[in-house]
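WARN retry 2 of 3 for item q-0093 after timeout on previous attempt; input resubmitted unchanged.
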Amino acid sequence: MRDDPTRFVGSIPEHYDQGLGPVIFARPADLVATRVASFEPSRVLETAAGTGIVTRRLRDLLPAAAEIVATDLNPAMLDVSRRKFQPGEAVTFQATDAIALPFADEEFDALVCQFGVMFFPDKEKAYREARRVLRAGGRYVFGVWDAIDHNPFARILAEAVSAAFDADPPQFVSVPFGYAAIDPIKASLLASGFAGLRVDVVRAQGAIADFDDFANGLVRGSPLIDQIKSRGVDPEKLTATVAQTLRDEFPAGATPLQFMVYEAWRE
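OK item q-0093 returned
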């Protein structure tokens, strides 16, 4: 269990939201939420909703009457998300596994997932579940990171982690950046019954307001921190190394981001 990449528990959600959110998740969230809102859905399901970065943007863009159901495997992530909403906003939170959705067939107009698919142990089953709960004409919109070579902030983290361990380095970074090949994803979506799809490769910039906060998020804002601690390496030293490398590589305070946005639709 020490290397389970899906356990966003303890203090991880706060570091994820505060350290990583503004730099690497806010811009993609705006793009994905804007895409979903353009469909004018009346009921939206979000899987792997995390700390509500996309959820909050969706709520801002959709009409007040539109319903959002935000789900995540980790209740601790949803606890952070809930704090971003006022009573009366039409958002429901539910701890749910994306590969076994507890919803009826054809219940939603749109399904959105930002940077969660990479963590699903059975991606094809997740795609079939997504199609099942969508109504005719419904859209499934999700984002995945491009390879680590196209996301230098992740390369910096991976290199620092590798250098900090004489043996058995944590492998977490390979998970979020290891599902980047477009053709196999397209094939899986079509094999899951979607009628068609669109793929966009997006290049953007993530503004780094505070290098120390961002480095802290990179080290402590995911299950990587548990992998580090279980191997006896000091996370403070690793964080300082990451922060200094970020300063050296991005003196202007911005890091390139590259990711893909998939849109699949059901007939």
